[in-house]
Amino acid sequence: MKRVIGLLAVAATFGALGASLLAAPASAAEVKQFGVGDAFSCALAKTGKVTCWGGEPSYGLENEPTAKFEQLTVGNYHACALKRSGRAVCWGDPSVNATKAPGRWRRLTAGYYGNCGVRPTGKVDCFGYDPYRDGVPGGKFRSVSMGGDFACGLRPSGRVECWGEDEEGQTMAPTGEFKSVTTGAYSACAQKRSGRLSCWGSDEDGLVSQLDRKIAGQTRVGWRNYCALPKGGGSLICGGDFSEPVADPAPGRFIGVSLYAFSDHACALHRDRTLACWGENPYGGTDVPRAFLPTER
Asked: What pTM was estimated for this model as a whole?
């Protein structure tokens, strides 16, 4: 399963095309949320408008919905956005059966071939790719994060539970009370309120061993790489496979970072809420629209 997903992700990365840029505004738009997928990126402005760039044209990622949204989540070949009402709109590759989001959601997280989300009741539901749906635990959750072929959720108590494929031990979450959990391709990390990380799953290229028990701010893990920020924001620290372009982050001081499980690029949020992206860029995924770039001073 791991090899099949990995080969599909690499093939998709090198099979994507094109990018479309926005016209330059008088001043930069402030980004509320952002995310990266396979060779494409998306941002949600504080105005509620969603913009995507890069990616395979046949997936329709450039056909973003025009409504105003409160939340944005980006998967491998698709993206979803939540309205204030809790209704979700998803777009992208229709063949993965992940673009139909029934009902209302408190939070929604896009993954490789599917999505998982938290309903207003606290229940987790998943749709799309089978491993995400199989074995979803009952009860209430605060949040959910999706990896390559598994997912992890955070209970109101702070306990982490994972489900799906477990070839690398990626569903064997540690015990304890945590404030957040983030998943990569075959590994995951949970963070305590002190900022200390507990990581598990595949340690390919030292991803888990380099992060486990470290103190950090926001942390994101991918396939063979990770990026982390110090508490309170600052310069990015990226590692894992140092031959990968993601390991050489953009310079500057940031308050947020996005790195998807199978992406070969990443994006980070400046303190002025503009974006910087870096990594492999064969199809425009790092070509940040001028609307989201820092204004010249």
From this structure: 0.87
